[in-house]
Specification:
The complex is a heterodimer of chains A (925) and B (212). Chain A has 925 residues and is mainly α. Helix content of chain A is 72%, strand content 1%. Chain A contains 43 helices and four strands. Chain A has a two-stranded antiparallel sheet with strand order 1-2. By secondary structure, chain B is an alpha/beta fold. Chain B has six helices and seven strands. In chain B, strands 1, 2, 3, 4, 5, 6 and 7 form a seven-stranded mixed β-sheet that branches. The longest helix of chain B has 17 residues. Classes of the chains: A mainly alpha (925), B alpha/beta (212). Chains A and B meet through helix 10, helix 12, helix 15, helix 18 and helix 21 of A and strand 2, strand 3 and helix 2 of B. The complex binds guanosine-5'-diphosphate and magnesium ion.
Chain lengths: 925, 212
C-alpha cells in the first residue's frame, strides 16, 4: 500500500511539478506539506502565472492521490472558495479551482483502500456541503459565460448530490432562483444540457417540493422538446435520462399529472411509442427508451403511486385522455403484435393495457370491440392476448397478459358474460392445434381447448394458464358460474360414455398436477412450471367458482372422490401451506354454500368428514398457516431504486435480466405467479370466507339435524290405539332417539378427542410437526397464555373486591355483636337492680313488720316503677333485637351471594381467623 | 391546446382565507366546504378569453403556513400574476399580514408581476371585520388591483382571475415585457388566433369523451 502510494506520488510529482523530486519519502506527511505549499502559493502568490501553475499542480495531485485528497480537505476549501468568490475575472483560476474541487470529490482510480478506511472524497463532500454559502456560490457560477465553469460546476453539484443529497436539496430549495438556474441549463449546449439533465434527475428522485418547482419552471415542455430533438425512442441515452426525469415528476401526487394533462397533453408522450424506421430493429437503447415511456404512461394511468383509492378523478381523467390519443392501438402494437420487441417491452405494454381499461367502462368496451390483424384474418384483440397466455415461454409475459384479463373482468359483469357465453364445446373435428395461429376460433373454444388439451401429455401447462383466465371470468359473477357449470365435454373420458362435466375434468387435473409435483420431487429441477402452478391456480379457480354458488358446490360434491381427495390434500404434509389452505377453504365452501336437502351430500356430512378425517382444530389451523404467509405475499415488490449512474449501463443490464430475475423458485415467497394469484382482492375474499366458514361450522354443530322430530302430542296415547301399539310406537321412537343420541355421542367423542389432541399437541405432536406448525402452535399457546393471564388478573381484582366487601361486613357484624352484648348487659344490670331492690324490700319487710302500711305502699310503688321502667327497656331491647336480626339475615344472604360461608363467618365473630383462607380458595377456581 | 398566451399565476395569503376554494371555484365551478389543507403547492388550469384571444391560465395554489414560506417563494419569480387573498371576517390575522406577504412578493417576484388583492368570503357580511374601504385603501397605497369576492357564492371569482389576466395582457400590448423571456411567467402560443377547437379544453374536468 505504502509502496503503491509512493509510486502514485512520484507519478504525480513527475507530471505536476516537472522534475522536482521529493526522494523516497512515502509518508502521508509529504503530501500534506506539498499540498500546503501549493495552497500557500495560490493564496499568497503575486505572480499570476505561478499561481495558475500551482493550481494545476494541485489539481493533478488531488486527482491522483488519496492522501492529497485528505490533505486538501483539511486545508484547501477556504482558499479555493476565496478564489471562486473574489477572482471571478480570472477565468483560468476559476476553472482550475472548480476542477480541483471536482477532483477532491471524485474517488481516485486507485481508491481501493481498506474497507473501513476514511473515504477522503466522502469527507470532502461533507465538508463542502456543510459550508453554508458554498452551494449558493456554486449556483451563482452557473450564470458565468465560460463553458467550463458551468460544466465543472454542474459536475461538482452532481458529486455533492451523490454524497450529501439532503443538504444539497435543502440548499438548492432555499437559494432564490436556484432551480430556475438549473432549469435554464436544459436549454444550453449539449454537454451542459446533458449534465444538467442528470443532476435534475437525481434531484427529483425524492424531494417532492423540488419536483413541483421543476414542473413550475416548465420542465415538461423542455423534456419533450429534448426528446423530440433527439429522435424520440430512436434517440440515445439523453432520451432515457429525459424519461427518467419525467417519471420522477409524475410518480407522486396528482398535481404534476394534472398539469401535464391540462397544459401539454399526452400526445407527445404517446407519440414516443410510435415505431419509426424499421419496426424490427429494436436496439437496446430503444428498448430502454420505450420502457421509460411505458412507465410514464403506466404512472399516469394509475394516477400516481400515492393515488388514494377514493380519489379516482385524476386517474379516470388520465384514462380518458389517453384513450382519446389512441394509446390502445399503440399498446396493442407493442404488446401483442411485436414479437421481435424485447419481452420486457411487451410486458410493460400489456400492463399498460390493463391499467388503461381498469374500472373504466368506455375503455373496457373499446378493448372488447378491438380487432387485430388484416383482412381476412381479423381476430378480437382479447383472443390474441389469450393466445399469448397459452403460448408464451416467459412467465413474466404470462403474468402481464393474465393481468389484462384480470382487469378486464374486474367489476365488468357484461364483459365476463360476453366471454363466458362463448364457452361452448366444439365438435371434436380431427386433431387441431389450438395454439395454431391460423385457426381463428371463438374465445370460449380456445379456452376449452387450453383447459383440456394434451390429456395424454403429462404437461398441464396450457391447462393452468387457461384455468387462471377462467377464474377471472367467474369471479363474483353468478350467471357465468352457473353457465360454465353446465359445460360438458363432448369427448367422453369415462368408459361409460357419459359426457364429463368441465368442472370434474378440472378437478381431475388437480390430482394429476399433484402427482406430477410429487413425482418430480423438487420442482426447481423441472423445466416445466406446470407442477408448480397447476395446483394453486386450479384451487383458486375452485375457490372462486364455489363462492356464493350452491349449484357449484352441489356439482363439486357430485363425486364422492372429490371430497376424499380434498381431505387428503388438506392433511398432506408434502403440500405447501397454500395448497393445504386453499383446499381447506374449498371444503369450507362445501359447508357454507351447501344447500343440499335430500339428494347429495349435505353440510353435516361434510363437517363430519372434516372432523373425523382431519379434526376440526387441525382443519382450522390450515387457515391460520396460510394467513400467516399472506403478509409475505401481499408485501409489495419493493421498487428497487436505480443507483446514481452516469451511464445507462445499469438499466441496460436490467432489461436483459428480466427473464432470469423471475427464475422459478417455489419456496420463495415472492414468486411472481403466486404473487399474482394471491392478489389483494383474492386475499380479502379468502379472509371473508374464512370468517363465514368458521361461523357456519359452529352453526352446524349447534343445530344438529334432528332425525326424530319430537312432537308432544304424539307422545300421548291416541284414541283407539291399543296399549300394545302405543308401546310399540313409543319403543320405536325411543330406539330412534337412542340412535341419534349414539350419533351425537360419537360426534361429541370425536370433538373431545380433537380437543384433547390440541391440548396435548404441544408435547406429543412435536415429533412430526415442522417449523411452521410449531410456530403456529406457539403462537396459539402464547395467545392462550395471554388470555389465561388476563383471566387471572380479572379474578385477582375480583378477589380483592370481595375481600374488601367481606371485611366491611365482618366489621358490621362485629359492631352488631357488641351492640347486642351491651344490650344484654344493660338487661342484666336491670335485672340485677331489680333483684337487689326486691331483696332490699324483703329485708325491710323482715326487719320492720309494724310500720307496714307505709312501707308496703312504698314498696308497691317502687316495684311498679321499676317494673314499668324495665318493661319499657325490655321492649326497646326486643325491638332492637328484631331489627338487628333482620339486618343479620339480609347481610347473610348477601354474603351467601358473594360466596362467603356465612356460618363460619358468624361463628368466627370475635376471632376472624378462618376467613381469609376461604376467599383464597375461591381465587384458585 | 392552442392558446395565444399562457400566464402563470400564484395564489398567496394566510392559511384558511380561501385560496384553495377560490381556485376550485374558478377551475371546477364548485365549492367544497371542507377543503384539505394545502401542502406545499397544488396546481390548477383553465382557458379564458381576452380580446378574443384564448389564454391559458396555469395557477399554483400555495400553502399559507410559515413553514412552507421558503418553498413557495420559489414560485414568485416565474409568475406573471399573483392573487393576494385575505379574509374579510378575520381582520387581525389576515388583513394585517398583507404587508408582509407583499414584501415577500416584491422581494422575490419580478417587478412587473401583476398583483390582485382579494377580500374573500364577502358572503359572510354579518361577520365582516374589514370594510371594503379599508381594502380599497390598502390596494391603492400599494398599487394593487382590488376586488371583494366569495369562493362560496362564486361572486367576483371569474372577474378576479380574468381582470388580472386583462391587466397582464394590457402590459404585453404596452410592451412592458420581453415575452420571449419565459421567466416572466408568460409564454406565447401559436399565433393567438383562436382555432376552431380553441375552447375545447375549457376546464379541468373533461366529460367522458368519445371512444377511440
Ligand atoms: N363562507 C365562506 N367560506 C369560505 C369561502 N372561501 C373559503 N371558505 C372556507 O374557508 C376555509 C378555508 O378555505 P381554504 O380554501 O382551504 O383556505 P386556504 O388555506 O387559503 O387554501 C374552508 O373551510 C372554506 O370552506 C367563502 O368565500 N365563503
Ligand atoms: Mg389551501
Amino acid at each position: 500500500m505504502d509502496f503503491k502510494l509512493g509510486r502514485i506520488n512520484l507519478n504525480a510529482v513527475a507530471q505536476g511539478v516537472g522534475g522536482l523530486v521529493f526522494g523516497n519519502d512515502t509518508s502521508a506527511s509529504s503530501e500534506d506539506s506539498y499540498v500546503e505549499r501549493l495552497l500557500d502559493r495560490i493564496s499568497n502568490g503575486v505572480l499570476a502565472d505561478d499561481r495558475r501553475s500551482a493550481m494545476s499542480q494541485l489539481q493533478s495531485i488531488v486527482a491522483e492521490s488519496r492522501a492529497a485528497q485528505l490533505a486538501f480537505g483539511a486545508m484547501g476549501f477556504p482558499v479555493l472558495t476565496a478564489v471562486l468568490k473574489e477572482e471571478r475575472d480570472d477565468i483560468e483560476m476559476v476553472r482550475g479551482a472548480l476542477e480541483t474541487l471536482v477532483s477532491a470529490l471524485t474517488p481516485t482510480d486507485a481508491a481501493g483502500g481498506k474497507k473501513n478506511e476514511v473515504q477522503p472524497t466522502l469527507m470532502n463532500s461533507d465538508l463542502l456541503s456543510r459550508e453554508a454559502d458554498s452551494i449558493p456560490l456554486l449556483l451563482s457560477l452557473l450564470e458565468e459565460v465560460d463553458f467550463y465553469v458551468r460544466y465543472y460546476t454542474l459536475q461538482l453539484l452532481t458529486a455533492l448530490l451523490t454524497h450529501s443529497p439532503n443538504r444539497l436539496q435543502e440548499a438548492i430549495l432555499t437559494t432564490p432562483r436556484g432551480i430556475t438556474r438549473l432549469m435554464d441549463m436544459l436549454m444550453e449546449r449539449e454537454v451542459i444540457r446533458n449534465e444538467a439533465l442528470l443532476l435534475l434527475t437525481y434531484l427529483t428522485r425524492e424531494a417532492e417540493e423540488i419536483q413541483k418547482i421543476v414542473v413550475f419552471e416548465g420542465a415538461f415542455e423542455k423534456i419533450f422538446s429534448i426528446i423530440k430533438e433527439e429522435g424520440g425512442s430512436e434517440g440515445g441515452v439523453v432520451v432515457q435520462d429525459c424519461l427518467e426525469l419525467l417519471n420522477n415528476l409524475l410518480r407522486r401526487g396528482a398535481s404534476n399529472q394534472i398539469l401535464l394533462r391540462e397544459t401539454i397533453g399526452f400526445e407527445q408522450l404517446v407519440s414516443i411509442l410510435k415505431l419509426r424506421g424499421s419496426a424490427y430493429n429494436f436496439t437496446q437503447q430503444k428498448t430502454v427508451n420505450l420502457l421509460g415511456a411505458l412507465e410514464s404512461i403506466e404512472l399516469l394511468l394509475m394516477g400516481g403511486l400515492d393515488a388514494e383509492p377514493g380519489k379516482d378523478f385524476n386517474r379516470q381523467s388520465n384514462q380518458t385522455a389517453f384513450a382519446q390519443r389512441n394509446v390502445l392501438d399503440h399498446l396493442l402494437l407493442l404488446g401483442v403484435e411485436s414479437p421481435w420487441a424485447a419481452v420486457s417491452v411487451r410486458c410493460a405494454a400489456l400492463r399498460c393495457i390493463g391499467v388503461l381499461i381498469s374500472n373504466h367502462p368506455l375503455n373496457l368496451d373499446a378493448l372488447a370491440n378491438k380487432v387485430l390483424g388484416e383482412e381476412p384474418h381479423f381476430e378480437p384483440a382479447l383472443n390474441s392476448i389469450f393466445r399469448i397466455i397459452l403460448r408464451t415461454s416467459s412467465l413474466q409475459e404470462f403474468i402481464a397478459a393474465d393481468y389484462v384479463f384480470k382487469c378486464f373482468c374486474e367489476k365488468n359483469t357484461n364483459g365476463q358474460a360476453m366471454l363466458a357465453s362463448t364457452i361452448i364445446p366444439q365438435p371434436h373435428s380431427g386433431i387441431r392445434d389450438p395454439l395454431d395461429e391460423d385457426i381463428k376460433m371463438p374465445f370460449g373454444s380456445m379456452l376449452l381447448r387450453g383447459l383440456t388439451v394434451n390429456e395424454n401429455d403429462e404437461d398441464l401447462e396450457t391447462c393452468w394458464r387457461a384455468a387462471s383466465v377462467l377464474s377471472h371470468i367467474l369471479k363474483g359473477n353468478i350467471q357465468s358460474k352457473e353457465r360454465v357449470l353446465q359445460v360438458k365435454l363432448e369427448a367422453p373420458m369415462t368408459s361409460f360414455g357419459t359426457p364429463e362435466l368441465l368442472m370434474h375434468r378440472i378437478v381431475k387435473y388437480l390430482a394429476v398436477g399433484a402427482s406430477m409435483s410429487r413425482n418430480n420431487g423438487d420442482c426447481k429441477t423441472s423445466t416445466s412450471s406446470s407442477c408448480l402452478y397447476t395446483q394453486p391456480i386450479i384451487l383458486r379457480l375452485l375457490v372462486t367458482w364455489l363462492a356464493d354458488c350452491p349449484n357449484a358446490v352441489h356439482s363439486f360434491l357430485g363425486s364422492q372422490d372429490h371430497l376424499t381427495y380434498l381431505l387428503e390434500l388438506v392433511s398432506s404434509l408434502s403440500e405447501t401451506v397454500f395448497i393445504r389452505g386453499l383446499s381447506a377453504v374449498i371444503l369450507g365452501e362445501c359447508v357454507l354454500y351447501n344447500k343440499s336437502d335430500d339428494n347429495g351430500m349435505d353440510a353435516f356430512e361434510v363437517v363430519d368428514a372434516i372432523s373425523q378425517k382431519i379434526g376440526l382444530a387441525s382443519y382450522f389451523l390450515k387457515f391460520d398457516e396460510m394467513q400467516k404467509s399472506f403478509p409475505f405475499l401481499s408485501a409489495k415488490a419493493s421498487q428497487h431504486r436505480k443507483p446514481l449512474a452516469r451511464s445507462s449501463a445499469a438499466s441496460m443490464s436490467e432489461v436483459e435480466n428480466v427473464e432470469e430475475s423471475t427464475a422459478i423458485d417455489p419456496k420463495h415467497d415472492e414468486d411472481p405467479v403466486l404473487m399474482s394469484i394471491f392478489d389483494g382482492p383474492f386475499v380479502s375474499i379468502i379472509k371473508r370466507l374464512e370468517t363465514d366458514i368458521r361461523q357456519s361450522i359452529v352453526e352446524v354443530f349447534s343445530h344438529p339435524k334432528s332425525k326424530v322430530a319430537v312432537v308432544p302430542a304424539e307422545m300421548e296415547q291416541k284414541d283407539g290405539e291399543s296399549n300394545e301399539d302405543y308401546i310399540k310406537r313409543l319403543k320405536s321412537f325411543v330406539e330412534k332417539q337412542c340412535k341419534e343420541l349414539q350419533d351425537l355421542l360419537g360426534r361429541n367423542a370425536t370433538l373431545a378427542e380433537d380437543v384433547a389432541k390440541t391440548g396435548g399437541a404441544g408435547v406429543s405432536g412435536s415429533d412430526q410437526a415442522n417449523g411452521g406448525k410449531e410456530r403456529v402452535q406457539a403462537e396459539t399457546l402464547r395467545r392462550d397464555l395471554q388470555e389465561a393471564k388476563q383471566r387471572v388478573e380479572v379474578l385477582k381484582s375480583e378477589k380483592t373486591k370481595i375481600e374488601a366487601e367481606a371485611s366491611i361486613y365482618r366489621n358490621l357484624a362485629g359492631k352488631m355483636e357488641s351492640d347486642l352484648k351491651s344490650l344484654s348487659d344493660a338487661y342484666n344490670s336491670l335485672e340485677q337492680v331489680n333483684f337487689r331492690l326486691e331483696s332490699d324490700v324483703k329485708a325491710l319487710r323482715e326487719g320492720r313488720s309494724e310500720p307496714g302500711l307505709d312501707l308496703e305502699a312504698i314498696k308497691a310503688e317502687g316495684r311498679e316503677e321499676v317494673q314499668k321502667e324495665s318493661e319499657a327497656e325490655l321492649n326497646d331491647l326486643l325491638v332492637c333485637l328484631g331489627q338487628e336480626q333482620s339486618k343479620v339475615e339480609r347481610l347473610s344472604t348477601r354474603l351467601v351471594e358473594l360466596g362467603e360461608d356465612v356460618d363460619s363467618l358468624l361463628e368466627g365473630i370475635g376471632d376472624d381467623v378462618g376467613l381469609p383462607e376461604d376467599s383464597e380458595d375461591e381465587e384458585d377456581r | 391546446m392552442s392558446y395565444a398566451y399562457l400566464f402563470k399565476y400564484i395564489i398567496i395569503g394566510d392559511t384558511g382565507v380561501g385560496k384553495s376554494c377560490l381556485l376550485l371555484q374558478f377551475t371546477d365551478k364548485r365549492f367544497q366546504p371542507v377543503h384539505d389543507l394545502t401542502i406545499g403547492v397544488e396546481f390548477g388550469a383553465r382557458m379564458i378569453t381576452i380580446d378574443n384571444k384564448p389564454i391559458k391560465l396555469q395557477i399554483w395554489d400555495t400553502a399559507g403556513q410559515e413553514s412552507f414560506r421558503s418553498i413557495t417563494r420559489s414560485y414568485y419569480r416565474g409568475a406573471a400574476g399573483a392573487l393576494l387573498v385575505y379574509d374579510i371576517t378575520r381582520q387581525r390575522e389576515t388583513f394585517n399580514h398583507l404587508a408582509s406577504w407583499l414584501e415577500d412578493a416584491r422581494q422575490h417576484a419580478n417587478a412587473n408581476m401583476t398583483i390582485m388583492l382579494i377580500g374573500n368570503k364577502c358572503d359572510l357580511a354579518h361577520r365582516r371585520a374589514v370594510s371594503t374601504e379599508e381594502g380599497e385603501q390598502f390596494a391603492k397605497e400599494h398599487g394593487l388591483i382590488f376586488m371583494e369576492a366569495s369562493a362560496k357564492t362564486a361572486q367576483n371569482v371569474e372577474e378576479a382571475f380574468i381582470s388580472t389576466a386583462a391587466t397582464i395582457y394590457k402590459k404585453i400590448q404596452d410592451g412592458v415585457f420581453d415575452v420571449s423571456n419565459e421567466s416572466y411567467g408568460i409564454k406565447v402560443g401559436y399565433g393567438g388566433i383562436p382555432g376552431p377547437s380553441g375552447g375545447r379544453d375549457g376546464s379541468a374536468s373533461q366529460a367522458g369523451g368519445c371512444c377511440s
